[in-house]
Amino acid sequence: MGEAPAFFADSLLGDFPNGVDLKSEGHKTAICIGSKIYVIGGADHESTAVIGVQIFEKSSGEWINPTVLGTKPKVSNGHSAVLLNGDRILVIKGNSKSDGCFWFLEVGTPFIREQEKTHGNEVVAWSKGVLGNVEKPIVISGPSGVGKGTLISELMKEFPSMFGFSVSHTTRAPREKEQNGFHYHFSDRSVMEREIKDGKFLEFASVHGNLYGTSVEAVEVVADAGKRCILDIDVQGARSVRASSLDAIFIFISPPSFEELEKRLRARATETEEQIQKRLRNARAELEQGKSSGLFDHILVNDDLESCYENLKNILGLTEGVKTAHKTYPELVDLPVEHLVSKIDQKILINCGAGEYQKASDNMYVICLIHFLLCTQSILEFWHLIPLVQVCSGLVFAQRRGPRTDTRTKSICHQSFH
Ligand SMILES: Nc1ncnc2c1ncn2[C@@H]1O[C@H](COP(=O)(O)OP(=O)(O)OP(=O)(O)O)[C@@H](O)[C@H]1O
Ligand SMILES: Nc1nc2c(ncn2[C@@H]2O[C@H](COP(=O)(O)O)[C@@H](O)[C@H]2O)c(=O)[nH]1
């Protein structure tokens, strides 16, 4: 439990407007959700370089230091906060460029509740907002044993509130530590065949003698959680997704050599010798298709795990200093520390105040909150355009980050497979 001055706690027990700026406390903001008050600002209890979060429990009068997941925003000399949908807080840092000032603090979503079970403590999660980018799902393919799952785990560990894994269905038997509903939905062949006929799957394929498939629901569950979806599927599945309406980024993971692939598959010790032979035979075909089909936007060679992971983050625009491609919206603006924020439906109005020779509207911005949608680009453009009609200067905002890449622009990081 944390400590706070008694007069501060007393002021939180009274009525106050959500998002109130507690200037006397060093520009902390307070957001009340049920019996909890989230106080944002000041230094984090672990590092003075990042914005801190504390929870004041009104019923007991206690302060809680939550487990804070995700990349935390650096401290600033002022911010505003507005509650979205009861379980997410939008934090707007003042005195910073508009591409670095929008942050989400997730506080009561299903993801957070799940994490609280694991941590046995209150949990909150930060994620950075990005202007004008639509987050496409990420399809990761490559031969068995190349390290797809390892790379995806790294990504989920570093950005827990940003990405969600699409849990596939399979008819293969579970491995020792695999959990139904988490690693896969393990299914009987007859049941899965019927569900395929019923149109339940976005894609499916027979892989190494078993059926594997991505249900539409698996992708929707991730989208509903406001996260960017990651699919770990084979090349046949990637081709089907490419042909579907799901607009995704396609990444092929290649091994440094065939010998290394075999070594990894054997060292994992999850397959019988017969299965290993089958997977290696299929790997040759997958490597050919991965290199030649023009299906993949990016090919990454997973030689050294750390550098491959860095390359993956570069592609996804997650490395500091990397510019994401094709940012079409809008020009960057400097948001002052003093600004007023209000929320109307899915739009956030930011009033930065008028200068001496300006109209009030000259310094008004509108953010349209766009969640990742399982739909075509044109519908997203439509969403973009609606708020721009009525405002003087358009700031369009997509929750969570992700580069807008040219589809089929091929980048090959590291050396190609030999
Ligand atoms: N760069 C690397 N260097 C050495 N070992 C690695 C590297 N990347 C992953 N591994 C190891 O290789 C093995 C296979 O990795 P992983 O299970 O992630 O492969 P995969 O592509 O997901 O396989 P599958 O398609 O069968 O699920 C694991 O034991 C993992 O620890
Ligand atoms: N087409 C699909 N392929 C999938 C799906 N889920 C996993 N996979 C691929 O299967 C192999 C083997 O996986 P393993 O867990 O048995 O080692 C691997 O290449 C996966 O990418 C899916 O839903 N559709």
UniProtKB/TrEMBL annotation:
Q: Which GO terms describe its molecular function?
A: ATP binding; GMP kinase activity
Q: Which Gene3D superfamilies match?
A: Guanylate Kinase phosphate binding domain (3.30.63.10), Kelch-type beta propeller (2.120.10.80), P-loop containing nucleotide triphosphate hydrolases (3.40.50.300)
Instruction: Write the record's keywords in alphabetical order, separated by commas.
Output: ATP-binding, Coiled coil, Kinase, Nucleotide-binding, Transferase
Highest taxon of source: Eukaryota
Domain Guanylate kinase-like spans what residues? 135-317
Q: Which PROSITE patterns match?
A: GUANYLATE_KINASE_2
Q: Provide the coiled-coil residue spans.
A: 266-293
What's its catalytic activity? Answer: GMP + ATP = GDP + ADP
Show the GO cellular component annotation of the record: cytosol
Family label: Belongs to the guanylate kinase family.
Under NCBIfam families, the record lists: guanyl_kin
The name this protein carries in UniProt is Guanylate kinase 1
Gene source species: Solanum tuberosum
Q: Which gene encodes it?
A: LOC102599782
